[in-house]
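Notes continue from the previous slide.

Worked example: a multi-chain complex. Inputs as given:
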Amino acid sequence: MARAIRFHETGGPEVLRIDEVPTSEPKSGEVRIRVHALGLNRADSMYRTGRYVIEPKFPASFGYEAAGTIDAVGPDVDGFAIGDPVAVIPAFMFDEYAVFADLAIAPARAVVKLPAGVSWEKAAATWMPFTTVWGALIDIANLGAGDFVVLGAASSSVGLAAMQIAHHVGATPIAITRKGEKLEELKSAGFTYILQTGADDIEREILRITDGQGARVVFDPVTGPDFEHIIKATCKDAIVFIYGALSHDATPIPVMHILGKHTTIRGYEFIEVTSDDRKLARAKAFITEGMSAGHFNAQIARTFKFEDAVDAYRYLESNTQFGKIVLTLD
Amino acid sequence: MTRVVRFHEYGTADVLRIENIDVPAPAADEVQISVRAIGLNRAEVMFRSGAYLQEAKFPSQLGYEAAGTVLATGGDVTGFTQGDAVSVIPTLDMSRWPTYGEVINIPARYVVKHPANLSFEQAAASWMQYVTAWGALVDQARLTADDFVIVSAASSSVGIAAFQIARSVGATVIATTRTSAKAQALLEAGAHHVIVMAEENLAARVDEITGGKGARVVFDPIGGPAISQLAEVMSVGGILIEYGALSSEQGPFPQFAVLGKSLTLKGYLYTEIVGNDDALARAKAFITEGLRTGKLDPLVSRTFPFEDIQEATRFLESNEQIGKIVVTL
């Protein structure tokens, strides 16, 4: 038998239970993983409360990120052997696979072997944020030495991953945050330039930091009223990614700036990488290399025991954490 | 002395004057052209009104397009001889290399020997519209035969040029226009479908035309609130190329459509093409070939004599025309 975190009705974190379920055998193209750490995502909470892109069918299992060892290998799978340390990249929906269990089935294409020296906690917290960032900043924007990249919601897991990827390729990240209490944490996480919306003149400060040139890349999940000030602080031929719309306020567009500077504004989703085998392979190679070099260290906010998933999600939903929340299993 | 058009202050078409000046000999990299026809552009209206990306220094000349014959060439210029029939690709600075005049000097990089089947009127009406449409649709949006492209404000010269460029790569053209007045003319000018915005539901019509798929490419000079409507009818991975700001209204950014469908919104100016040697060479080759074979057939709305430059400009600003307005000498 295996133990899975599931819910039988939508609701708050308290509806989560650990259920005993039969152990599944991996089918063609699948592996089974003995899980040692799980990474929490906001999508989990949205799914549990019935506000996600798919509706839960009860009893509902879920979970995108996990790290552990290969426990069984299905037919037609190459490159994995029992005992290999691996992590899961979320290249599926919850109605296809769900990894929040002590024994989890995952599609082999979404599984990546871990370099030596990476803890289970870090491994479970790495792949969603770093793959998200890679697809936009490296694969599309070709971020490199000398570039400035502006990061909205910089204290999120994705924002922090973007900082490390920018440093890894020699670019300079500029953090934007709404909350004053994150300023110190962003500084100790490694940001040199940190701007606070509502307190700083974003446009003027970015222009000052970039010596009047403006940033070439923006990576923002917020949009809203500040968006136009960020765009006005970009250089010619800049690319502005939006990967979320956390602000519910109207987002004005500075049309004359966009025309005169040939700005590209592009909606971006993680699935653009995970649905494309070649991109996924390039992402795996890039991130593995950065982890091996010690440049990519996922920020862990706090770890909880597998059995304490309810507390872990209460903490996630409090929005006070800095980095990823992880569940551990022996 | 040479007659040129100048203005001494920003204003309406009334500020345009025909004045006599001395045109200097061409610089080392320039070609001097005896102008036979001038193509008028909205950018010149905006420049004259003080609403352009560039400020005027008074008295200022203006103009992006012309065609004529070579009078003289600068010391470093090769490939042109006196008497060649040539046309002008819009330069990066219309006040420095203006085209509204009897004699003009233009850097050789922006001068093309056009195919012999083209009249001077057509040649003067070709390059701004085709370079603009080619750069957006072919070079940036990678338009193919599988695509549906929405061309808004379709009765402008660039709009009609976009129909022809899109058709030359086999794409399906959906034109939008405000009222039914120009609908028939747009179909005749090459649109496969026309949507009358004041009378029809854009989303329903695009859905019907594209079989529910949506349009992958949108080519829009209006901006403002229409951007949100257009984003709604685009397919996943689509690109909206914004090449003007005709709307004075500020429209909201359609962040949910952009996010949900991984859409790209790109500001675009023809200068991206003419400022880049490789892109300019590709544009010249594509457009020259299209003009030669007749796949690109510049539509001249009306011609005016040089003396009637004010009247010609007023007609451009009336928005009654379909296609290009040309002034002849």
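Summary box: Residues 126 and 298 of chain A are 5 Å apart (CA to CA). The first helix of chain A runs from residue 42 to 48.
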